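**User:** Everyone, produce a chain:

**Assistant:**
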Amino acid sequence: MEKSKVIMRGCIPCMVAIGIMYGVTLVALCLFQLVSNPLGWSGSDVPDESVLNYVGIWATGCVHFVYIIVFYKWFCKRTVDSTVEDMRKHLTKRDLLGLIALGVFLQLLVSVLLNYLLPYFPVLNESYQELYESILPGNSIVAFGVTAFLAPVGEELIFRGVTISVMEEHLSFWIVNVVQAFLFGLYHMNLVQFLYAFAIGMVLGSVYKKYRNIKACILVHATINLLANVISFIG
């Protein structure tokens, strides 16, 4: 199979994920509109911004819940149908500690780089800060659960799970890794997030190649997001 066709196939999971994101979000907004009308929120009389943020994080949670259902089944099917030798490694306590340490290192590295570099780019800094605050409205328990647990599971199934499995039988790993990391960056739809998500995606792809166990990637991703929540709460 031609490389270009394989890469296009590898883009399908990301496209499906984006479609789910917009579809579920649209449904959530419609439901919010149905609720808001009886409450008298219409025209210029809109609810407080914090309410809208909480609606957004609940919608995000629903999106990732659907991700987990759809892409877990897809990943399981790809794993069963794959002709690539199953090299799945059992994760020992030492492996788990090493993966957690990797997640901590990546998050601290990203935080230091962003704190040092973003002030030199005021426009990017402002847009990123607004995005970050909308993702973690008031450090709520819901936002914490979505970003630290649901998001890592859903996104790892999409990119390190299904996307890699679609391409790895036909392409060398370095091409597959670059493509899935690039799609992971694009998925975040923000230049700043694209840059560090691409780099983290490359590392997570390497973790999957080493362990052949999606749980290893989920653990690193969850550690990164969990620490980001802690830093946000402290800050």
